Amino acid sequence: MIRTRTARRIAAAAAFGGGGVGILTGAMVAVLYTEAKIARRTVGVPVGQPPTADGVYGEFPEFDGPPIRLAVLGDSSAAGLGVDNPLHTPGALLACGLAAVAERPVQLVNVAKSGAQSSDLERQVTLALEAEPEVAMIMVGANDVTHQVRPADSVRRLEQATRRLLAAGTEVVVGTCPDLGTIEPIAQPLRYLARQWSRSLAAAQTIAVVEAGGRTVSIGALLGPEFAARPGDLFGPDRFHPSAEGYSTAAMAILPSVCAALDLWPLDEERPDSFRGEGVLPIAVAAVEAVEEGGTEVAGTQVAGNERGPRGRWALLRHRRRRRIPAPTQSDEQADGQAEGQIEGQADGQAAGKTEGQAEGQAGDGKERKGATGTGPGGRDAAEGTDAPSSSLI
Known about the structure:
Layout: H1 4-16, H2 26-43, E1 55-57, E2 68-74, H3 76-79, H4 90-102, E3 106-110, H5 121-129, E4 135-139, H6 142-146, H7 151-167, E5 171-175, H8 190-212, E6 215-217, H9 225-229, H10 231-234, H11 244-261, E7 279-282, H12 283-292, E8 297-300, E9 308-309, E10 312-318, H13 332-351, H14 356-366, H15 379-384
Parallel strand pairs: 2-3, 2-4, 4-5, 5-6
Antiparallel strand pairs: 1-3, 6-8, 7-10, 8-10, 9-10
Helix pairs in contact: 1-7, 1-8, 1-12, 4-11, 5-7, 7-8, 8-12, 13-14
Domain SGNH hydrolase-type esterase: 72-247
Protein name: SGNH/GDSL hydrolase family protein
GO molecular function: hydrolase activity
């Protein structure tokens, strides 16, 4: 189990500089380096780009107001790498679920980039703010672990991104670092260390985000027991990225928190239920408990009018009830436009260096695949920037 001392140390280092995950012997480093190379070779380099799902979700003819603006930031898990249909990406699933709860359309802008580390959040926030989002969902951290980024640096960049979004009037929900110990191609003892590092980072992310004014949802344990029990269903072909069903599982866990951030969740579920293990705790304790149970939300709260107690910031820990997300839908006109745009883009790219006849044939094959082009602010830039570095796993 992750110690509260470890999470606090990483979060404190993020605020004041410094920090790390420990020292390994030379022999252990050699073993881990070899296992990492084997894991990367097994997983391989991510092929293709995540489908771009920017657009408006939910049709409500009687509603004549503006749509809710949702921004998605982070790495390939936020972008939806591993699925072909844009409607199966986390952003589309969240947009559809949010639209169903709010009973109004939702405008999705996804600026997540495959292979991104927390250092890329500054660029992504700039793109996302062009759309003036009302709420933003961030999923990041796995690449920081696989690239051995100092946890303090990773957490500091996430905190800065959170504060910048909140300052612009955007509510922030962060899906914390997934548990990399569930990844099949990673062998022991690297798998054990990956689990410890990713869980420590997730706890520290929660402390930093809640201190900044946002809220978090633990993804690590959520993708632990369920993914370990059903790897064929919840993992994609590379056994690293989630499948369509895996993304749906994560989206169902995050959706209630996104709705609550906008005051759209039922009020009768806002009171903490002690029988469900919900309650007020010091932030470091809540962060560690959240890591142990997937789908746990942590947000700041007050006790007797005070935000802080003897052990730091007060936090409210919740296990919100998940709701199945209805099948995402877009308007026929928008869906047709997205499909045509992706087909044209594929044909243009394939035509370079090939005969005209080959390009036409491949473009024809592409019509059988569903796709989408960026329609929201920042959508084109996000799509162009999804090539993952050769050393990236997420």
